[in-house]
Write a structure and sequence with these properties.
The structure is a single chain. Helices cover 30% and strands 13% of the residues. It is an alpha/beta fold. An eight-stranded parallel β-barrel has the order 1-2-3-8-9-10-11-14, surrounded by four helices. Strand 2, helix 5 and strand 3 form a beta-alpha-beta unit. The N and C termini lie far apart (57 Å).
C-alpha cells in the first residue's frame, strides 16, 4: 500500500519539535551562550554544545541548565501549541539522560533532567498532544553536528582563539571514522549495544505512559553511515519498542538518503507501526530559488517522493527559513554555508534567564573564530555578534511571499505525508524557525488567528525586519 494512501487514511498530523530544550543548540537559545563570546579556549572555557556546556561551566552548569529547563518550555507552551492545531510534539533528548558520561556525569550537570522530562508527558496528556521521543544525541556523535550533544571533532589552535570543526567533521558513534579514506575501517559494536540498552531504559521508564506515542532511536545519522549497520540497529530497536511500548510508532531517519529503493525492503513487508523520517530544509537548498513559486514547486516535488515508499513518511523537521542567516545556525561563531542573500542585522535578544550576561555591545566582533570547511576561510559576518547585533533571515522575500511558501508546504504535506514536525516550537530570535510566531504571522496556519493571540508589533518586527526599514529610526517608528 502506497504511503500516500496511508497518509490519506490517517490525515496529516501537525507536529512541532521542542528543540534547544534538553539538547542545547546555540542558534536556538543564543543568550544562553553569550557568556562564551570574547573568550579563548586555553582552559576549556568555551562551550558550543551540551557536552562542552557542562565541561566549561563545571559545578555552575546544572544551576543554569535547571533554570533553562524550567523556562524555555513550560506547560503554557503546550497550551499555546494546542491552540495552533498541534497534535504531536517531537522531544529531542540525549542518550546521556539516563546514562550520563563524561561532563554530563560530572558535578551533577544533568541532575533533575528526568523530572522535567516526566513533566512533558503530563503536560502533553493534559493538552491532548502525543509525544515522539527522539534520541537526538548519541555518544561519540552520529553526525558531527552540535545537535548530537557534541560537535565532532573540534580542534583548537594554540592561541585558543581559533577552532576547526567543519574541516574536521566526523561521526564516531558507529565506529572510528577514517577521515583520510572517508570510511569506517571497523565498527564499535560495544557503543551500538550501549545505545540499545539506553533505548531499552527509555522505553521501560516512559514507554507505558499515555502520551508516549512514538520512539526514534537516532536523529540524523550522517549520510556516510554504514547502511547495513544502521538498519540492524533499527531492527533491534523495533523489537524493544514492541516489547515495552507496543502502542507506539517506531520512527527511522533516512540518514539523508530519501531513497525508496534503499528503505523499502528493510522491514520485509511488515510496515505496521513504522514510519520513515525525512528532514527538509530549503534554507540550504535554495541557492537557485529566487521566487516564492520556485520554493512552492520544490516542496511539491519533495513531498511527492513520499509516494514511492511502502511505509508512511513523516517530515520530522522543516522550517520556513529561505536562507542560512539565522544567527549561529552553522554553530557557535561558526558556519559551513554562505548566505545566498544579505542577512538582516537586529538587536541581539536579551537573556531570558536572570543573571546571565548580555552581549558586549561595545565590541565590533566577538570571537573566538571558527573556520569554513576549507579549514582556512573564516565564517561570514552572520556568524558573529557585531556591536550588539545578531542576524535574522534576509528580507529578500516579503511577508506575503513567506506566507505563500508556508501554505504551499502545508498543502504539499497534506497530499503526500503522514505527519510533519516544524523545527522548532520556539526560537529566541528567528521567527521562520519558530512555530508559534510563524503561525501568528499567518505563514502556516490555514484558519483565522484570534486577534488576542496575534504577535505584537515587536514580534512582527523580529519576524520580518523589512517592515521596519522605512527610516533610520525604523524600530522606534514601527513600535509607536
Amino acid at each position: 500500500m502506497a504511503a500516500a494512501t496511508k497518509a490519506a487514511e490517517i490525515d496529516t498530523a501537525t507536529g512541532v519539535n521542542l528543540g534547544g530544550w534538553f539538547v542545547l543548540e546555540p542558534w536556538i537559545t543564543p543568550s544562553l551562550f553569550y557568556q562564551f563570546t570574547g573568550r579563548n579556549n586555553t582552559e576549556n572555557q568555551v562551550a558550543m554544545d551540551t557536552y562542552t556546556f557542562c565541561e566549561a561551566l563545571g559545578e555552575d552548569a546544572n544551576g543554569i541548565l535547571t533554570k533553562h529547563w524550567d523556562q524555555w518550555i513550560t506547560e503554557d507552551t503546550f497550551k499555546e501549541l494546542k491552540k495552533r492545531s498541534v497534535t504531536w510534539v517531537r522531544l529531542p533528548i540525549g542518550d546521556w539522560t539516563l546514562d550520563p558520561y563524561g561532563p554530563y556525569a560530572e558535578n551533577g550537570c544533568m541532575d533533575g533532567v528526568t523530572d522535567r522530562i516526566k513533566n512533558v508527558f503530563t503536560w502533553a496528556g493534559n493538552s491532548g498532544i502525543n509525544v515522539l521521543v527522539d534520541v537526538h544525541g548519541l555518544k561519540d556523535s552520529q553526525n558531527g553536528f552540535d545537535n548530537s550533544g557534541r560537535a565532532s571533532k573540534v580542534t583548537w589552535e594554540e592561541s585558543g582563539e581559533k577552532f576547526h570543526h567543519w574541516d574536521n567533521q566526523e561521526a564516531n558513534w558507529m565506529g572510528p571514522w577514517n577521515s583520510a579514506d572517508s570510511k569506517y575501517d571497523n565498527f564499535n559494536f560495544a557503543n551500538l549495544q550501549r545505545s540499545l540498552r539506553v533505548n531499552e531504559a527509555i522505553l521501560k521508564k516512559w514507554g507505558g505512559l499515555t502520551a508516549f506515542k512514538g520512539f526514534q532511536p537516532v536523529n540524523e545519522p550522517w549520510a556516510q553511515s554504514d547502511m547495513s549497520v544502521l538498519k540492524d540497529y533499527y531492527l533491534e530497536t523495533r523489537k524493544l519498542v514492541r516489547r515495552y511500548s507496543a502502542k507506539s510508532t517506531m520512527v527511522v531517519h533516512d540518514a539523508f538518503q530519501f531513497d525508496a529503493e534503499l528503505w523499502n525492503g528493510m522491514f520485509e513487508g511488515d510496515y505496521e507501526d513504522v514510519v520513515l523520517d525525512h528532514h527538509y530544509y530549503q534554507a540550504w537548498y535554495g541557492s537557485d530559488t529566487k521566487t516564492a513559486q520556485a520554493f512552492c514547486d520544490a516542496y511539491t516535488a519533495e513531498a511527492a517522493k513520499a509516494d514511492d515508499f511502502k511505509m508512511p513518511v513523516w517530515f520530522g523537521e522543516w522550517s520556513l527559513a529561505t536562507d542560512v542567516c539565522a544567527f549561529w545556525l552553522g554553530g557557535f561563531n561558526d558556519a559551513n554555508t554562505l548566505p545566498q542573500q544579505e542577512c538582516v542585522r537586529t538587536k541581539c535578544p536579551d537573556p531570558y534567564i536572570d543573571g546571565l550576561p548580555n552581549v558586549d555591545a561595545d565590541k565590533k566582533i566577538l570571537g573566538p573564530n571558527g573556520t569554513m570547511a576549507d579549514g582556512k576561510t573564516g565564517p561570514p559576518d552572520n556568524a558573529y555578534v557585531m556591536s550588539g547585533n545578531c542576524t535574522v533571515d534576509s528580507a529578500f522575500f516579503s511577508d506575503e511571499d513567506v506566507a505563500k511558501i508556508g501554505h504551499c508546504a502545508v498543502d504539499s504535506f497534506k497530499n503526500h505525508v503522514a505527519a510533519t514536525f516544524f523545527w522548532t516550537a520556539h526560537n529566541e530570535l528567528e521567527a521562520k524557525w519558530d512555530y508559534i510566531r510563524a503561525w501568528d504571522m499567518g505563514w502556516i496556519n490555514q484558519t483565522a488567528v484570534d486577534p488576542k493571540d496575534k504577535c505584537d508589533p515587536w514580534e512582527r518586527y523580529m519576524a520580518n525586519p523589512k517592515f521596519a526599514r522605512a527610516t533610520q529610526e525604523s524600530q522606534l517608528q514601527f513600535l509607536s
